[in-house]
Every structure is written in C-alpha cells, then in structure tokens.
C-alpha cells in the first residue's frame, strides 16, 4: 500500500502536469494571435481570463450533479483531458477572437474535470497525512501551467500552432496515463455534496471565511502574475540594453513561474507542517506582496536582477496555495464541507478574472514600473485575514 500510493502520486502528478499545459497555451502565443485576430490589450486579457470563466462554469456543473461522485474519478479525468485536448487544438483553425475566446472557455470547462478530480484521486490514495502529497500535486499544476513557455522555446519561432498542438498532445498523454497507468485507490472518501442552500452555513463559519478571505487575496495576485509576468519580462528586457531573444524570455518565464513555483509548493507543504498553516500563508503572502512592489524597480535594469526577483516571487506566490483549502477542511463541518470547498474555489477563480483584466488598464495609466504593485492589495488583505485565522488555529492546537 505504501509503495503503491507513492507510485500513484507520481503518475497522477505527471498526468496533471501534462493536462494543465492547456491553461496558458493560448496566452504564450499572444503576440501571434494579437496580429492574427487584431487583438487589443483588453481583448488579449480576456483570452487568458476566459479559461477561469470556463473553469468556474465547469466546476459548478460538476459538483452540482456530483459527476466525480457518480462516475469513476479516473474516467472523468480521462474524458475531461480528451475534451480539453480537442477544443484546445481547434484554436489552430479559429479565425476570430470571439471563436478563440469561446474555445478557451470550453477549455476551462474541461479543466474543471482535471484539477479537482486529481485532488479527489489523491485523497483516495492518501486518506490522511496528505500535506506533502498535495504540495507535490500543486507543484505539478504549477509546472504544467508554465509548460507552454518551455514548449515555445523550441516551436514558437517555427509556427505558433505547434505550441497549441504540443500542449494538446500532452493532454492526450495525460488521458492515456490516467486510463492505463493509474489504478483505482483501495479506499474511497465520503461523497462531498454542493448545495446553494448550504452556502449560508459557510458564510456563518468565521474561521472558514477567514481562510477564504486569505485565499481570495492569494488568487487576486496569483493568476494575474502568471499571465502578465512574461509580458513584463519582455518589456523590461526590451527597454534595457540587453539584447534578449524570445527564447530567452520564454525560458525566464518558465523558470520564474514553473520551476520556482514547483519548488515553492513542495517546500511550502513541508514548512506548513512545522510552522502551521497560518504562519506559512502569512510568510508567503508577505514575501509575494513585497516582490510585486519591488520588481517594478528592476524594470529596464540588468537581466539577472529582474530575473532574481521574479524567481523569488514565483516561488512564494504559490507556496501557500494548498494551505487555504486544507484550512477549510479543518473547520468546516462535514455536511457542508463540499459546498465550502467549491465556494472557495469558484469565488477565488472569479476574482482572477478581474485582476487579469485590470493589469493592462493599470499598465496604460501608471506603466510597468508600478503596475504589479496593484496586485499587492490581495496579499495584504490575505495577511490580515490569516492573522485573525491564527487565533482559531491556536485554540484548536491548545485543545
């Protein structure tokens, strides 16, 4: 059993890594799509924000009808990854921004059957003490989300469509791994239901809502940073005396978001077990908020300086992500736990839509030097919430 669950974690994480390459596959090809579809900055932002829109829709549909509870979770993952690969591939023949955005919404719907389902599968293999395992899974998600940047190093100079095709092929590989390599777990967790009627119970649970507020602040920053950091790096390097190729920018983005983020997830899971969830989240939020302000001062400066801040930011911006949902599982009562987790995820991704779209507007007004400081608002709000949450955590520890 012990060896089997770690083997399952390995393959589930690899499948997650491959499938999540769909999330930013279109964002990476933004310059080409901007010209092909005559995009402005705001329309380009919606190209990225459309995936969270679809993810929210897909998540609500999935939990309302109990899809992952009524059907085998592995099969749900397989079908979702196949659907995501298909609609992502259709981007190569889309000829308008409207069709492209619609396809990205459908991609988000498909991914709603990938990430939450992978978490469910993980909980089946790790019914207890899953902190490190969850950190590894979130690391795979982070690395997978940045994978299109790595793919573009080799293919974007040849044809932008190849980036889309490769990410779709990786999603197909994820479906294959989940179907033929990953086995069903020997244990199955209790069904977690979602009901709009139970949201009131979530809202009245103060520690749960404080954890939610922390998560909302975290999400305000996370996906906007992931979306716009590569654009910032390109603009920063262009304004400096450095002659940097698109491949170098893509590699810098992959390292800052994916590699650094994956390391941060694993370390965050380990540190949280020693410091406590609230302390880890407060530390991560404080460092990421500081980086969102500091990185503006590196704009147009030496490449190594900007990249150093970006790597630290990439590590801490995601290192606390798993802890907010874990905090909810500790304080939400069983009858509405599923509703509490769904509420947290959906509101969190809804917030990302606003912050992703705010960045190009703010950039046009205050420039790249100050624009990411807008994202620090979320972590500051999250720190205040998690400091209050800490009192409930301490009461629990003292019992």
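Sequence proposed for the structure above (399 residues):
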């Amino acid at each position: 059993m012990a060896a089997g669950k770690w083997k399952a974690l390995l393959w589930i994480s690899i499948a997650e890594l491959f499938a999540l390459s769909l999330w930013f596959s279109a964002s990476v090809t933004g310059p080409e799509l901007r010209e092909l579809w005559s995009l402005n900055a705001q329309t380009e932002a919606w190209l990225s924000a459309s995936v969270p829109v679809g993810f929210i829709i897909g998540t609500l549909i999935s939990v309302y009808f109990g899809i992952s509870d009524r059907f085998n979770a592995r099969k749900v993952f397989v079908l979702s990854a196949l659907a995501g690969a298909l609609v992502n591939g259709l981007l190569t023949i889309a000829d308008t921004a409207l069709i492209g955005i619609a396809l990205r919404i459908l991609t988000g719907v498909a991914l709603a059957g990938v990430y939450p389902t992978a978490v469910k599968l993980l909980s089946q293999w790790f019914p207890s003490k899953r902190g490190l395992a969850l950190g590894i899974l979130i690391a795979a998600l982070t690395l997978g989300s940045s994978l299109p940047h790595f793919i573009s190093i080799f293919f974007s100079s040849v044809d932008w469509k190849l980036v889309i095709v490769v990410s779709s092929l990786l999603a197909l590989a994820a479906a294959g791994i989940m179907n033929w390599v990953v086995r069903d777990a020997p244990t199955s967790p209790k069904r977690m239901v979602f009901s709009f009627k139970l949201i009131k119970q979530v809202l009245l649970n103060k520690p749960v809502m404080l954890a939610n507020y922390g998560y909302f602040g975290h999400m305000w920053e996370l996906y906007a940073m992931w979306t716009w950091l590569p654009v910032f790096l390109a603009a920063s390097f262009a304004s400096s005396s450095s002659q940097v190729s698109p491949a170098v920018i893509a590699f810098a983005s992959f390292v800052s978001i994916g590699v650094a983020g994956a390391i941060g997830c694993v370390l965050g899971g380990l540190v949280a077990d020693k410091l406590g969830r609230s302390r880890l989240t407060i530390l991560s939020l404080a460092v990421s908020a500081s980086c969102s302000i500091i990185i503006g001062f590196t704009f147009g400066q030496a490449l190594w300086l900007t990249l150093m801040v970006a790597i630290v930011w990439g590590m801490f911006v995601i290192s606390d992500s798993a802890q907010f949902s874990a905090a909810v599982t500790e304080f939400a009562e069983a009858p509405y736990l599923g509703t509490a987790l769904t509420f947290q995820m959906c509101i969190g991704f809804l917030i990302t839509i606003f912050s992703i779209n705010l960045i190009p507007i703010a950039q046009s007004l205050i420039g790249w030097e100050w624009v990411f400081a807008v994202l620090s608002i979320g972590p500051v709000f999250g720190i205040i919430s998690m400091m209050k949450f800490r009192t409930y955590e301490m009461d629990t520890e003292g019992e």
